TrEMBL record:
Protein name: Glucose-6-phosphate isomerase
Similarity field: Belongs to the GPI family.
GO molecular function: carbohydrate derivative binding; glucose-6-phosphate isomerase activity; monosaccharide binding
Localization of this protein: Cytoplasm
The encoding gene: pgi
The entry's keywords: Cytoplasm, Gluconeogenesis, Glycolysis, Isomerase
HAMAP family (alphabetical): G6P_isomerase (MF_00473)
Xref: InterPro entries: G6P_Isomerase, Phosphoglucose_isomerase_CS, SIS_dom_sf, SIS_PGI_1, SIS_PGI_2
Function field: Catalyzes the reversible isomerization of glucose-6-phosphate to fructose-6-phosphate.
Record's catalysed reaction(s): alpha-D-glucose 6-phosphate = beta-D-fructose 6-phosphate
Main location: cytoplasm
Amino acid sequence: MVRVSFDYTNLLEVEGGIRESELSDLRPRLERATDEHLQDPPGFTRLPHTRDLLTPSKALAEEIRTSGATDFVHVGIGGSSLGPVALHRALNHPYYNALAERGGPRMHFAENPDPNTLHAILDLVELESTWINVVTKSGSTAETMANFLVLRRALVEASGEAGYRERTIFTTDPDSGYLREIAEREKIRTLPIPQDVGGRYSVLTPVGLLPAAVSGLDAEALLSGAASCANEIAERRAEHPAVLGAAMHYLMDTSRGRNIRVMMPYADALERFAAWFVQLWAESLGKEGKGSTPLGAVGTTDQHSQLQLYMEGPQDKVIELIEVENHPNDLEIPRAYEDLEGVGYLGGHTVAELLNVECDATRRSLAEAGRPNCTIRLGTVDEAHLGYLIYALEAQTAIAGGLYGVNPFDQPGVEAGKRITYSRMGRPGY
Ligand SMILES: O=P(O)(O)OC[C@H]1O[C@](O)(CO)[C@@H](O)[C@@H]1O
């Protein structure tokens, strides 16, 4: 059973928070935005209800896992990597790649075109048994294509053309783009990214499903978790707490001047999940002079780094805590040094207890200092809970687009820099 809840108490009750009247004034617009979202559903809303993309992803993953693969390099950037990285970091062993006994290949992510990272990957992988998965919706993102070209040459050198073709996958647009053209030329196997699903909404397509299944995660549970959220939203519409969150964050930004949304999970596992959300919220809503700035943090680590600013700095932030009720692999803190009062008190508690008590302490101290905050509570961190939360935040972001009056599915602002890069790098026509 998936247990995910959204607690907005400290947005409503703290001084400087949202007034009930503001929320009720906004309600008709929230209902309209939600109705529009449900009547003309964007492509990503279909994903939890179909197995059309899961079946080929799982079949290919099984082939890779049983092929004796030692390494799997996922090549992509932005929406073509943030989701897969988030899932990997949340659900696989943090030192997975260092484990002697592992249930699948080591996972590597070539995102930035940083020679040092690429060199490190090439240094680590056993090229004769390495698979590469090149993920780009447009089929021409410079960073991804550069990383691909370097890895391709290494694979060809190690295993010849045939080995490269056999152990390479392209995850891309079903019909168009340069990567599609290369796939046809070189007979490379492909998985589709549906045309109506943009990169930052694509983690539940083969973009996320294939790497998840390759590393042994339960991709089916990811989709069923998402489906339970989708069904709840279809039923409760603007009353659903994830949808209500669109109104809460919109109001904090536009009426309270709190235009920074800090997502702070109290779990190392979710650090990259916050990075996934940052792209979703930033690229979807930051346009036409509108939008709020999402930032990622992690508790307790950032209590010892940023909390001072959150408590006493400018009143421009909403802190969104993510609390995990049952942390996997909890450990008891042993009793020792009981005669030393600054140490002995910890014995007999658990590590997760300390983490969650600190989450609560942050929530309370922020509220007492008049700093609005909210909490997402997850029963645990597993595929179903993350599937639910991914869908909830995608729907919330899309509906927030309706409130801001912007198109949450385009990103015109990133084109200018791309054009300059193409021209400087000598791409014909630029
Ligand atoms: O999947 P692609 O086409 O390589 O794009 C990667 C990312 O680049 C962007 O287009 C921004 O430049 C994102 O929207 C996208 O997620």
